[in-house]
Amino acid sequence: MQNALHQKYSQIIKAKATDLGFDACGISKADFLEEEAPRLEAWLNQNYHGKMSYMANHFDKRLDPRKLVDGAKSVITVILNYFPEQQLPTNDDNYKLSKYAYGTDYHFVLKDKLKDLMAYISEEIGEVNGRIFVDSAPVMDKVWAKKSGIGWVGKHTNLITREIGSFFFIGEIICDLVLQPDGAIKDYCGTCTRCVDACPTDAITEPYVVDGSKCISYFTIELKEAISEDVKGKFENWIFGCDICQDVCPWNRFSKPHSTPEFTQNTDLQQFTKNDWEEITEEIFQEIFKRSAVKRTKLEGLRRNIAFVKN
């Protein structure tokens, strides 16, 4: 009887997630991530987090969702596609921006949708103790998405689905509601090593292991100081983020344009030339990237990246 109820609740939640525009929704039991503990420890011990000191904080909370939400029983994971209908020019004559940063910052968009899902759960099922997470706390997004059967973690350490590839955002609700968990699916990377071979800074040190401190996204977004001369000439014109390992992944031939209006790029960006980027003013930066993830670097950081790539 209880199992039938848990199954019913899970179906209700997944149906609502689809209504809200999420591309997939999966459920896991909120347990200690036993397999991940030694992996995370080894990764941190090798300093693969670079200057991202926050990655070493709250080790126990990263591995146990019950330390984030009292009495947590389930992790509800959702994904939201951001693959654009029209990509910015990616030829060698222009600077490149990661596709995830084309539109409104995903933190706002996902949080709003998850708040709607949370409100719906309370209305339909009853008062639930839960929290919404969108990169806002030490939650291992990709691991939970993998455990809930949404996809598998590829050799570039991004989550991949067979239906839409890997260009999507991940968010969670961790709550005290007992739900019917989904099972993980198999890894479909096979013998392919395209992502490993394509990384210009050799950040993928071996399949399924990324040295974050060598990643172009790390240098152009997370690093606040001067970029090391060791990687000079290796950025292939990326000035905010990098999509190389995803662009070469065969599974992304199944990517389809998103249907989230907020992720549509600013039309001015489409016309941006190399010269426009090099001469960008504070006023234009604030106007074009008003609610964009690009604001994380601030104009000063963007100019540093452009100068590093340019010379």
Automatic annotation (TrEMBL):
Compartments, record wording: Cytoplasm
Keyword Chaperone applies: no
Chain ranges of the 4Fe-4S ferredoxin-type domain: 179-209
GO MF entries: epoxyqueuosine reductase activity
Major subcellular site: cytoplasm
Positions annotated as active site in the UniProt record: 135 (proton donor)
Enzyme class: oxidoreductase
Domain of life per record: Bacteria
Family: Belongs to the QueG family.
NCBIfam families per record: tRNA epoxyqueuosine(34) reductase QueG
Protein name: Epoxyqueuosine reductase
Organism name: Emticicia aquatica
